[in-house]
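Format notes (please read before filing issues)

Several people have asked whether sequences and structure tokens are stored in separate files. They are not. Every record keeps both together, in the order shown below: the sequence lines, then the token lines. Line labels are part of the format and must not be stripped during preprocessing.
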Amino acid sequence: MEQIKDVAREICAAYNVKLSPEGLSNFASILQPQKLLRGKTPFPKGEVCPCMYYVKRGLVLQHYEKNGMDVVEHISHEGDMVICIESYFMQEPSYLEVHTLEPSTLYGIPYKEMMELARTSFEICQFIFAIQQRSLIISQRKADMLRFETAKQRYVRTVKENPELVRRSPLHYVASLLQMKPETLSRVRTQVMEEGL
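Then the structure lines:
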């Protein structure tokens, strides 16, 4: 139990949330550890997302199919939260596919149990708000990047802000995440290396 409490503390620290000893114990008690091999999914596409997943170790891909093409929504690694936000909070089937790109250790935060804690705990409500807030900010920043920045600017920003993602993810997934073709990404990478950016 102490190991799970340490993970609970780590999650709280990642979201700048301080829970009381009782709140931390309650939160730790609902965490669901899950070890997945590469290429495995915590839940299948078309089903309700049962948990938010904190990535303790590994790399996790969220993607969907559009017009026969695989489109990357998000890539998460250590310290990130994997969440199909609409499916989780609305309890509706997810259109996203989620699977691991590396052997991964995830800690699930189940919807039902989290909402039960929130019904009697203001600090858990604040915690949920912090998770939603971060998710919305990440989505907004990505949307703004895709709308306003060139392919080169998008790549340079991602390398600076998330070097682990670029270093560890297959390039075709990075290209899809940045909404460019793999050959465009290859050209941009060469240009950036030549310019020493």
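For reference, the curators noted about this record: Residues 149-197 form one domain. The first strand starts at residue 32 and ends at 36.
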